[in-house]
Amino acid sequence: MPHIPLPEHLPGITGLLEYNKETAAPIRELTQFILRGESTLTPGERELIATIVSHNNACKFCTAAHTAAADLLLGNTETCEIMKQDIDAAPVSDKMKALLKIAKQVQISGKAVTTEAIAEAKNNGATDIEIHDTVLIAALFCLYNRYVDGMATVAPANPEFYQGLGQRLVDNGYNRLTNGYDHLKKQEQPA
Amino acid sequence: MAHIALPDESLPGIVGLFNFRPETAKSLRWLADTLLRGESPLTSGERELIAAYVSHLNDCQFCHMSHASAAMAHLSCDLDKIADIRNDFKEIPVTPKLRALLAIAAKVQKSGKEVSDEDVAAARAEGAIDREIHDTVLIAASFCMFNRYVDGLGTWAPQDNEDYREMGQRMAFKGYIPAPVEAVKQ
After folding, report:
1. Partner B, chain A 134-153, Cβ-Cβ below 8 Å
2. Rounded to whole angstroms, what are the CA distances from B121 to A33, B17, B106?
3. What's the pTM value of the predicted model, to 2 decimals?
């Protein structure tokens, strides 16, 4: 049960973002830009960064949601599955492998990022903006994961829930839905 | 030297990063202002103490010192009291409620999962309401982002309390969103 009363039809992060729309607005704006805005990294690649960090923070809700979004954007489920076990074995570019390793270090601490990991990314063609955005995405998910789990929000067990959510993140991105989320009240509630 | 080429290496910490990427700076500044100066049942001084404390636990010198300086400005304390944030708040007056909220913030710094029902019950027993628990967790989580952003890109930080005096006063009383004139100058 969440530590404070939250809308029951909105598990995970969504209920928190609706609980306080003033703090949600800049978080949503930042996320929309950094995950969906103009970038030389594809939205699928950026969702991989969100996924590896959430996975390493053991945040069930965020990991399942961003895995679903990444799977849809990449058109396969293997990439996320393999990446979670072994970044080097994942079917992504060498540049992406290097960026995902930086993200893993950021998950531990900002201070854990090594000059070697940065050099490896640069040697594989990563630009300064790509490195910057990787670090910021990884850091942002250290916020999200702690917000979601620190408030003890509900993570539905039903995999279909995350399919639906992943599709919403692909179709609508991270901006608040224009008409809010009342339409979700009509859906069957996960146990 | 930072891990990426910043246009102005003389700008410390997050300031250099804001200058590098104005697109993300806008949202990050807005977030900091809303968290620390927006509407909340916690005072800005209390919220800056939470920010400074979590930044200390993350060993992020720039965020710790700048937010500690902002907290001192709000609380009308001397900058030499900053060390007390790193020393369990023996001198800075902290209410039992804020102490319980700081304990929650310390759990969040480790992991969201560390926050227990007992931690929340302890804060409630000292009078903390839903919104104060929410704001504490979100501020602590946000500084786990800001700290990683600042240190993950290898920015530099000034060393002395005095170097942060003006910055802290500006953060406390003018806020985190630059005046339009300053923005144009960029």
Report:
1. 135-136, 138-140, 142-152
2. 37, 39, 16
3. 0.96
